[in-house]
């Protein structure tokens, strides 16, 4: 079970509030984007609490308190809260809703990882050390660009992807792509070209600050590049 990392002032505060409220007979809502560590925080303070998604909630709840990880999926909050009286709720939601105020007197907010520098640096250190051990790497690539779009989820994924690619040579990468394409050859060259172009455009977009810089790096004229960016807009 992953330990909740609390190095930034925001997460130290969130952890302290939850620990202080742990034995109070009140409902608690934890608010934060996907991947900010809401359930990990609950695991830290309530290690033995029964955990459910909205879809997996039983008809009859025997426990005195439960954790619901996707509480925003409750269709009618007032009806649900009346039906579950006597059970203490610890819930996670991705964004604040005014209806929460009526039923959850304690609300803890976990900001995005991009706003928690100390947590980001510590989590990056932990995952890089882990992949170095798993992939037997002496050094982790210095040109690593972290992906924080989905917070801890995408950070971890981007670190593992970088470690995997750094442990493979071009021939091994091409062999993987070849194996994937074996069952799709009949779709035709034009239909499969995006598998090469989209990753290349994504990489150029990450590295370059403008379309002009992308154009120079890829050695494409701006009209051609703009056309490709529009064509693959939903994938880039």
UniProtKB/TrEMBL annotation:
Stretches that traverse the bilayer: none
Gene Ontology MF: a single term: ATP binding
Limits of the Sigma-54 factor interaction domain: 5-52
PANTHER family given in the database record: TRANSCRIPTIONAL REGULATORY PROTEIN
Entry superkingdom: Bacteria
Keyword field contains ATP-binding: yes
Organism lineage: Bacteria, Pseudomonadati, Campylobacterota, Epsilonproteobacteria, Nautiliales
Any one Pfam family match given in the protein's UniProt record, by short name: Sigma54_activat
Keywords carried by this UniProt record: ATP-binding, Nucleotide-binding
Keyword Nucleus in record: no
GO biological process terms, semicolon-separated: regulation of DNA-templated transcription
Designated name of the protein: Sigma-54 factor interaction domain-containing protein
């Amino acid at each position: 079970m992953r330990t909740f990392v609390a190095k930034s002032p925001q997460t130290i505060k969130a952890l302290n509030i939850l620990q202080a409220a742990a034995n109070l007979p009140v409902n608690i809502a934890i608010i934060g984007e996907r991947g900010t560590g809401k359930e990990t925080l609950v695991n830290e303070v309530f290690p033995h609490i029964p955990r459910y998604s909205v879809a997996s909630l039983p008809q009859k709840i025997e426990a005195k308190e439960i954790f619901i990880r996707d509480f925003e999926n409750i269709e009618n909050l007032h009806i649900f809260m009346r039906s579950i009286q006597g059970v203490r709720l610890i819930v996670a939601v991705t964004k604040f809703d005014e209806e929460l105020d009526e039923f959850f007197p304690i609300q803890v907010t976990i900001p995005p990882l991009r706003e928690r520098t100390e947590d980001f640096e510590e989590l990056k250190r932990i995952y890089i050390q882990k992949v170095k051990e798993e992939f037997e790497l002496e050094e982790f690539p210095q040109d690593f660009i972290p992906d924080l779009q989905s917070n801890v989820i995408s950070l971890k994924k981007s670190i593992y992807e970088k470690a995997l690619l750094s442990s493979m040579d071009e021939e091994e990468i091409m062999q993987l792509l070849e194996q994937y394409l074996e069952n799709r050859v009949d779709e035709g060259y034009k239909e499969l070209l995006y598998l090469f172009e989209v990753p290349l455009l994504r990489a150029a977009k990450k590295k370059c600050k403008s379309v002009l810089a992308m154009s120079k790096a890829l050695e494409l004229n701006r009209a051609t590049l703009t056309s490709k960016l529009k064509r693959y807009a939903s994938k880039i």
